[in-house]
Amino acid sequence: MYYEIAKEKAKNLIEKGSAVLLAIESSCDETSAAVVKDGRIVLSNVISTQIPVHKKYGGVVPEIASRSHVTALVPVVEEALEKANCTLDDIDAIAVTQGPGLIGALLTAVNYAKGLAFARSIPLVAVHHIQGHICSNLIEFPQLTPPFIALAVSGGHSHILKVSDYCDFTLMGATRDDAAGEAFDKVARVLGLGYPGGVKIDELSKQGNIDAYRFSTHLEKEDNYDFSFSGIKTAVVNLVHNLEQKNQEIPKADIAASFQATVVRMLVDKAIKAAKDVGYKKIVLAGGVAANSRLREEITRMCRQAQIELYYPSPVLCTDNAAMIGSAGFYTLMNGNIADINLNAFATGGLDEFYRK
Predict the structure, then answer these.
(1) Domain region containing 155
(2) How does pLDDT run across 44-100, given as a tens digit for each residue?
(3) Same domain, 295 and 331
(4) Quick one: 11 and 50 in the same domain?
(5) CA distances from 20 to 98, 112, 130 (A)
(6) Model's pTM, two decimal places?
(7) Dihedral, 105, 106, 108, 111 alpha carbons, nearest 10
(8) CATH of the domain at 203
(9) H-helix or E-strand containing 269?
(10) DSSP reduced 3-state for 126
């Protein structure tokens, strides 16, 4: 009965072309809730981070993350509604991150969202996390519309996607091993910089020489859109260990700068190549690594040379947040995709596959 009622309400919203969504995100170590209107207007966006909790472990501990979401979820949702100056009576649909991410963390928000949607008899919209990151640009730039190439780079993902429409994605390339953000965290750990590694590497790199060391990967010269960061990470680890064994000083800033420059070079070159090959004149940058200053500078320079429009969100929208889930949820809803009460989370899965389910 719930699903039939939700479908009818979704149909009315689609005909109206407008909806206010309560969005919830809990895929990793941020608990976030937002109220978003029509996919572009953010009425509130509340983020509760767990970084201080996980910092002492050098990374995210899944069990601790899940328990932290359980305690933070209700207060965060209540704060989001309060800041948006609305109540649940004003909410047309619930959007929630279904995956990918830490399965325990995802399930906290998925189950909460299901209960809320069922209790209110309103549509439940499942959102792919990567689509959320891409849609952060739609919030930042009201004039931005598909088609474009998306370079989505985070702790768990490094993807190049052809975005033909709001819910039409084609995976062009991806990492064959470590994601870029994961490599940043591991290199930061080896250099003793702490967590989160991406920010630490970015800061330290400003003091180093990008040409001090030459790290490379065979995929740089291959005619495809794939990435590989495991070998670069291993090269850094071996370099540091060799210096330690010889009791030599470790030039952390130079190593960080050279490592970061190599990763950025591969990301930018492949994204530019993808845009040129499909004939698109717009690239959007998305994901946590999109906040990296070197990546922003280099892709801006290369896009200017190639006469390609570049879009990237503010740092607060690069991190995991519910506003981006609300934006993606709106377009998913308008595409006629709503979930039933049996919705489950998933830890892995591509965005292109998400809309073929």
Answers:
(1) 146-313
(2) 999 997 767 677 667 777 787 888 889 999 999 999 999 999 999 999 999 999 999
(3) no
(4) yes
(5) 19, 18, 21
(6) 0.94
(7) -160
(8) 3.30.420.40
(9) helix 252-278
(10) strand
